[in-house]
Amino acid sequence: MPKVNIRDNKTDFELEMAVPGMKREDFKVEVDSDVLTISSEMKKENEEKRENYTRREFSHSSFRRAFTLPDTVDGAKIDAKYEDGILKLTLPKRQETLPEPKRLISIG
Predict the structure, then answer these.
(1) For the whole prediction, is pTM greater than 0.85?
(2) Coil, helix or strand for 10?
């Protein structure tokens, strides 16, 4: 199961998953009813034929991680990138849930 880091920033959450040796096409990222699901399934077959024998190897690996999104996340604006073995998702917070900047009130 890949390890996950989640960072809570001021305007978004960052989710990083270490999954080296894969390609972008190997991942499936979905949001359904405020549940973010990241999954992958890889099947490989290796066959070696020689004069008097055949060697055939199969490998299958898969994972599935699901995260319940808080109400503060705007699920329609989630962005995903895969670089250097790290799958990185940016989950922006809804504008109305962001803290308002401090303002100075003048005294009249």
Answers:
(1) no
(2) coil
User: Cα–Cα distance between 15 and 29 in angstroms, integer?
Assistant: 12
* Strand residue runs (E) in 2-105: 4-8, 12-18, 27-32, 35-49, 54-68, 79-83, 86-92
Matching residue, tokens 């100075």: 104
Domains with residue ranges and CATH for the chain: 4-95 (2.60.40.790)
Consecutive sets of 10 residues in the chain, 108 residues long: mean pLDDT of each? 91 93 89 92 78 77 90 90 93 82 80
Pick the closest to residue 73 from 13, 6, 10, 7 (CA basis).
Answer: 13
Which residue type sits at 108? G
Residue 84 per-residue DSSP state: T
